[in-house]
């Protein structure tokens, strides 16, 4: 597949950064471009390297050249405090174009089609996840909750949350591809706190046109399994496959008990034990809200382990996709893939190098959200490179561990100048370029 993918991805980020409004005064750091602040911060996330800026400033003073300029196109290296102050004034929507252009690279390389499953749709999981919390640091847009410490004292916890959106590949260890999230934030003058469900509704309305051509099937946990969200998804031209717990939706559960359903049972030997997959479904049941009715289809699944003599997994969903003996297994495979946003997205971002929950700079307005977005863009770029960039994948797979690979990237860029990405990836792969 492609060579030079990272350059195309970075060109998209540069174009996006170049189009950001400059709200600085004439005497306030105008020797730096807005793009220098964005790309300088992004480099920290791309290499997972908190000292990236300091190392490159030292290299510039020593050699009159640096990797931020050669690799990322940063003309002048701003300081960390300058970056925080400038990014605090940039609204998150200004960076959404970087996601769009990155996804276009995936499409042009032909990798996006491999994610299509249900009736040619692409499965996207929505899920709320925290990315900052503190009892001390906060801003006017923080969400709050009261908690008791060990001494029984009530303290206020400040936190930031978002509805993450991620393309997943059911049943295969393909990389997940994050889309634009929707931030959950308290706005000035609002008495009631923002919440995940409201943020999900905003995401649907904001992104319906942006992602219309992709033909999405939205997946989510039981929180999303309500009449209003289902209706808004359909009005936005999106399909849905949403977890539906009986205890949370008694009206749906009652219809299922008395409805005319069908069942399919499949026995499987997985090399260690016999498993029985039991699929059951009822089409055309009502999802109600204040007298309004929406017909949906219900799917239930149980996995029975014959050696243990017990059900080891069960779940249920509602969907607008047609359910029959030919589609039910595919629907269940997709429904079970919802966990990928928790394990392969949220968990990786928080605990495997990206440090999503670290306070990179809270700010008063948008700094925490901009840093979160740049972290997501770095994660997206890495995933795309694994998918479609041969040089990156060769360097990546030459290490047994992901953290060793990023250590090598940090080592090389902190100590040695690299003229371009080709040079860097070859070096990290253990192949020293000629000359």
Would you write up a description of this structure?
The chain has 435 residues and is of the alpha+beta class. Among the domains are: 5-95 and 359-428, no CATH class; 228-323, no CATH class. The protein is 39% helix and 22% strand. The protein contains 15 helices and eleven strands. Strands 1, 2, 3, 4, 5, 6, 7, 8, 9, 10 and 11 form an eleven-stranded mixed beta sheet that branches. A hairpin with a 2-residue loop joins strand 9 and strand 10 (292-305). Helix 2 (34-46) crosses helix 5 (80-87), helix 6 (96-108) packs parallel to helix 12 (367-388) and helix 12 packs across helix 13. The radius of gyration is 24 Å and the shape is globular. The two termini are 26 Å apart. The relative contact order is 0.15. The mean pLDDT is 93.
List the helices and strands and how they pair.
Elements: H1 5-18, H2 34-46, H3 52-63, H4 67-72, H5 80-87, H6 96-108, E1 122-134, E2 143-148, E3 154-167, E4 177-178, E5 182-184, H7 196-207, E6 216-220, H8 227-235, E7 239-243, H9 250-258, E8 262-269, E9 274-289, E10 292-305, E11 310-319, H10 328-336, H11 339-351, H12 367-388, H13 390-397, H14 402-415, H15 421-428
Parallel strand pairs: 1-6, 6-7
Antiparallel strand pairs: 1-3, 2-3, 3-4, 3-5, 7-11, 8-9, 9-10, 10-11
């Amino acid at each position: 597949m492609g060579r030079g993918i990272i350059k195309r991805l970075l060109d998209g980020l540069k174009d996006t950064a170049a189009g950001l409004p400059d709200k600085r005064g004439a005497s306030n750091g105008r020797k730096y471009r807005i793009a220098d602040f964005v790309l300088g911060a992004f480099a920290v996330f791309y290499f997972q390297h908190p000292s990236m800026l300091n190392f490159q400033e030292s290299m510039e003073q020593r050699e009159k050249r640096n990797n931020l300029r050669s690799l990322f196109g940063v003309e002048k290296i701003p300081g960390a405090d300058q970056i925080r102050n400038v990014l605090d004034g940039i609204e998150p929507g200004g960076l959404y174009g970087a996601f769009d252009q990155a996804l276009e690279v995936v499409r042009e390389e032909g990798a996006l089609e491999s994610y299509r499953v249900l009736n040619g749709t692409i499965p996207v999981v929505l899920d709320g996840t925290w990315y900052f919390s503190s009892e001390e640091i906060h801003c006017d847009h923080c969400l709050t909750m009261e908690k008791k410490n060990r001494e029984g004292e009530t303290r206020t916890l400040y936190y930031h949350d978002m509805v993450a959106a991620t393309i997943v590949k059911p049943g295969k260890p393909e990389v997940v591809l994050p889309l634009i999230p929707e931030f959950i934030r308290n706005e000035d003058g609002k008495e009631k706190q923002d919440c995940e469900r409201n943020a999900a509704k905003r995401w649907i309305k904001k992104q319906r046109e942006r992602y219309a051509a992709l033909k999405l099937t939205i997946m989510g946990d039981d929180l999303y399994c309500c009449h209003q969200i289902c209706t808004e998804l359909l009005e936005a031209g999106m399909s849905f496959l949403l977890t539906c717990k009986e205890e949370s939706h008694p009206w749906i559960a009652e219809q299922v008990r008395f409805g005319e359903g069908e069942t399919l049972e499949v026995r499987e030997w997985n090399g260690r034990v016999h498993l029985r997959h039991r699929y059951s479904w009822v089409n055309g049941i009502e999802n109600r809200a204040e007298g309004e009715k929406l017909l949906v289809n219900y799917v239930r699944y149980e996995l029975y382990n014959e050696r243990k003599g017990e059900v080891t997994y069960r779940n249920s969903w509602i969907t607008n996709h047609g359910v029959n003996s030919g589609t039910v297994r595919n629907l269940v495979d997709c429904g079970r893939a919802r966990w990928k946003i928790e394990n392969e997205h949220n968990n990786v971002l928080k605990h495997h190098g990206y440090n999503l929950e670290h306070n990179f700079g809270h700010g008063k307005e948008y700094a925490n959200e901009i840093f979160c977005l740049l972290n997501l863009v770095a994660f997206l770029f890495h995933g795309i490179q694994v998918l479609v960039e041969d040089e990156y994948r060769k360097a990546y797979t030459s290490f047994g561990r992901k953290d060793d690979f990023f250590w090598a990237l940090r080592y090389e860029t902190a100590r040695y100048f690299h003229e371009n990405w080709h040079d860097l990836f070859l070096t990290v792969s253990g192949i020293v370029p000629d000359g």
